[in-house]
Amino acid sequence: MGFNFKKGCDLTLCLLCLSFILILWRSPGRSEADIFKPVRGDESAQFSESFTFHLKIARVLSEKDALWSEAEKEFQLAKKINPRNYQPYLGIARLALKKEDWTLAAGNYRRAVERNPDLTDNNAKAYLGKELISFTKEAIRRFRDIERKKPRDSVNSRNLKNAYYLKRKLAGGCD
Amino acid sequence: MIKIRRSREYKALLAIILSGLLLGGFGVMLSVWGNPKNTGICVSCFLENIAGALGLHNNVRMMYIRPEIIGFVLGSFLTAGLTKEFRSRGGNSPLIYFLIGIFLIVGSSVFIGCPLKLMLRLSAGDINALVGFGGLVSGILIGVLFMKEGFFPGKPRENKPLNTVIFIGGTVLLLIFLVVRPDFIRFSVKGAAARSAPLLVSLFAGLVIGSAAQRSRFCVTGAWRNFFLAGDRTLLYGLLTLFLAALALNVSNGDFSLNRFGQPGSHPDILWNFLSMALVGLGSVMVGGCPFRQLVLAGEGDGDAVVCVLGMLMGAALVQNFEIRSLLSGPTVYGKVSVILGFFILIGVGRYLLEEEADA
Description:
The complex is a heterodimer.
Chain A: H1 5-26, H2 30-35, H3 49-61, H4 68-81, H5 87-98, H6 102-115, H7 130-149, H8 154-171
Helix pairs in contact in A: 3-4, 4-5, 5-6, 6-8, 7-8
Chain B: H1 2-32, H2 43-53, H3 67-82, E1 89-90, H4 94-111, H5 115-123, H6 127-148, E2 157-158, H7 162-180, H8 199-216, H9 220-230, H10 234-253, H11 270-287, H12 291-299, H13 303-321, H14 333-359
Antiparallel strand pairs in B: 1-2
């Protein structure tokens, strides 16, 4: 019995229908997609008074070494109020870097960049330039060292993914 | 007689190698002169930029009238006119061409790049592009299977030249908008669209490439289609030249870096890099050429290609508005769904046209 091309097509169409439904069914909820939506254009309307208040307090607290945990709490509160804004994530990332917590720093730098792509765009005012470039280089070096020692470490592989994401953003391609 | 044939074959080979050299050379150098990295030439990215400039989407980072696209069309038009190859034709299944045009851009945007950019990414050492390349060739193979089974969208008919002249007029209008910059045309000040090579350089590159591609019939997908269908390797030499020229320039510029995760304008998702390019491969075979070839064909009077280009422009707006395009972190849910939908529609269309052929 030879291969029937038309029947093959019909079978493929059925399989495509099934995978279409499967992807929709397994897709994340709309709310999660919303959170990771990059911020575009003017976002000043999203600022509330309490958001800026917590952000200011956090910045002041993060200046003093003994108050870093308090500062982080304030950043977390600001994040809760406006999860789409990049500033609390950037604040947490910088704080984590001071504490030498590379995992927390990589994750939060990434979230900040996802929310505001201008951070990696040398044509934009918000461009972080040297800070992000040097962080990314060092983070990749560290995470790759750990990978060589512990190749199956899932946390480290996620960290490496975050650092590579930053590297791709900084490379300046079309996205 | 054999001498004449050999001389024609030699000329065709020379033309295709020249096209490959120009595409590879300008493809890399336009990035050096200001275009985004690995995106010296990318039909899908550039159409997304044009769609943004015309107000068809609202991504403030993707709005610019790319002179390269204008150059491809006008270069092809002028050369076809000078060599008396301009022939207004078409009229076959316009909506099918329009629909496939949309999905060519959907596939390209999920991969982040058209087949031409795939070659440029490959020459910069992007391993994700190698996965996409595998997908593209697989898609072309499926398309070739359809062709062997009798897929045929219809024979093109001669029609009034006005049909294509309107398209050329629209392209000239875009050039005027680019130079005059009226208020209603939007230009990005940040993001990928804000990075561009000088206007005259980009336009010149577009014109030269469009002209050479019209003469040589250069096409990324057509090269493989001809090879699989008839064992013809002529276009493949052009593709190889493109790759080698771009590779040599990337290595000499220090832009070559063999890795999977740190490449500009790419994401490391293996499955969706493969599937999205397979969709582009299949669609390209169905409409008779890759997105770049469609622009060149549109310039030389092919009405079906004009409809396909308009579909691509619509696709460029849709991928931005519906978040179908991939982010650097990977494909979106809407991107994945659209690729599956694309396969469903393309295979459905292919199957329907097979049936029609059998009934006729």
